Amino acid sequence: MSATVNKKKTPEKDLGQVFRNADDFKSVYVNFVQTAATPVDISLIVGDANPTPRGVPDIEMKLRLIMAPLQAKVTLAMLLTVVKQYEEQYGKITVPAGMLAELPANESGDHKSVKGEG
User: Fold this and answer.
1) Is residue 9 situated within a structural domain?
2) Are 58 and 78 within one domain?
């Protein structure tokens, strides 16, 4: 097991964070995400959806991430940033029609509709 020191400096101070992989750390590919919330936490349930001959996907649930609402909001901001950077480098991601009707409101409260293909 190796430890990696975060060399990124913040304007205020070097956080000196140390990252290490837990013994049971693993990477999981997912193409299905479901969300759930309680008054005290927000969950992402992730899995792998595979087509079947009958046309209904077979979804293998792989992992549930449970986090505090504050961490969920920070994670949302991080995902929005990385998707924006991805689209700047590789091109716009088009969401298929019916997959997502509307994006959540941004910090100013504006909603953006997602126009799908199809």
Assistant:
1) no
2) no
Q: pLDDT tens digits for 70-83?
A: 999 999 999 999 99
Q: What is the pLDDT of residues 12-26, one digit of tens each?
A: 556 788 889 999 999
Domain that holds residue 85: 69-118
Question: What's the whole-model pTM score?
Answer: 0.66
State CA 108 to chain mean position distance.
21
79 three-class SS: helix
- Answer yes or no: do 77 and 56 share one domain: no
Count of CA atoms in the C-beta half-sphere (13 A) of 112 = 8
d(CA 87, CA 83): 6
Contact 47, 59 (CB under 8 A): yes
CB atoms under 10 Å from CB of 47, counted, come to: 19
Give the distance from CA 33 to its chain's centroid.
9
Same-domain pairing of 81 and 47: no
